[in-house]
């Protein structure tokens, strides 16, 4: 079995694959990350709690936007799963042609999401919208060229910025409001966070379609922890919250032959 770990700025999202079946998923706060042993104990415990025998895990794949986390994660993979983990980073096979001016700058999670979207929709132009700590937009052509995209603050970051940088605005639960017109401060903030983000996604997607696809109609794939919150707004053609894990799985398979030789 393969343990895939997506290390984000806010959360670690993990999943175990047995062939093409995802056996379980879990999430853990990225901060505090923990030591090698703390991570190893957490992973083995959470797998057991989800009905997966940790002894069945023979490979680990990691994509991370937190470089400092890799040392402890490598140690946990080696000590608790007895393998050298695959790390999705510049220079490994992805199946994509990365057209970014500096390919090393592209976040590993963005590449993983693009890989999985291409696998789900081969031969189709794509815009992948990842609603996490940041909201990112990634454009992939029908022939697998990763062109780049857009990055803006995510819903959670926007909420925290309001609470941290204003004297009277409170922290609020991030939720979909029933209406746009807020009648309390809390409702007004929730409305701004939600509908402001809806408008941003709609406008950015429209611009990307015009700039990258001309007359073609790309498939819009939503992912990330906040994507389901926008389900009723019909922003996406499909929502796949675990998209990055599937992309990481595919990247690990692409590179397995080189690692074993």
Please provide a written account of the structure.
- The chain is an alpha/beta fold.
- The chain has 2 domains: 2-87, Nucleotidyltransferase, domain 5 (2-Layer Sandwich), CATH 3.30.420.40; 97-246, ATPase, nucleotide binding domain (Nucleotidyltransferase, domain 5).
- Helix content is 37%, strand content 24%.
- The protein is built from 6 helices and 11 strands.
- A 6-stranded mixed β-sheet has the order 6-9-8-7-10-11, sandwiched between helices. Strands 3-2-1-4-5 form a 5-stranded mixed β-sheet, sandwiched between helices.
- A hairpin with a 2-residue loop joins strand 7 and strand 8 (134-140).
Strand order of the largest sheet: 6-9-8-7-10-11
User: CATH topology of the largest domain, what is it called?
Assistant: Nucleotidyltransferase, domain 5
Low-confidence stretches: none
Strand percentage: 15-25%
Summarize the biggest pleated sheet.
6 strands, mixed
> Quick one: CATH class of the largest domain?
Alpha Beta
| Helix proportion | 25-40%
Number of domains: 2
Please state the second-level CATH architecture of the largest domain. Answer: 2-Layer Sandwich
Q: Give the CA-CA distance, first to last residue.
A: 20 Å
Order of helices and strands: EEEHEHEEHEEEHHEEH
Averaged pLDDT: 94
Supply the number of helical segments. Answer: 6
What's the CATH H-level superfamily name of the largest domain?
A: ATPase, nucleotide binding domain
Shape assignment: globular
The helix/strand class is alpha/beta
- Tally the beta strands: 11
C-alpha Rg, in Å?
19 Å
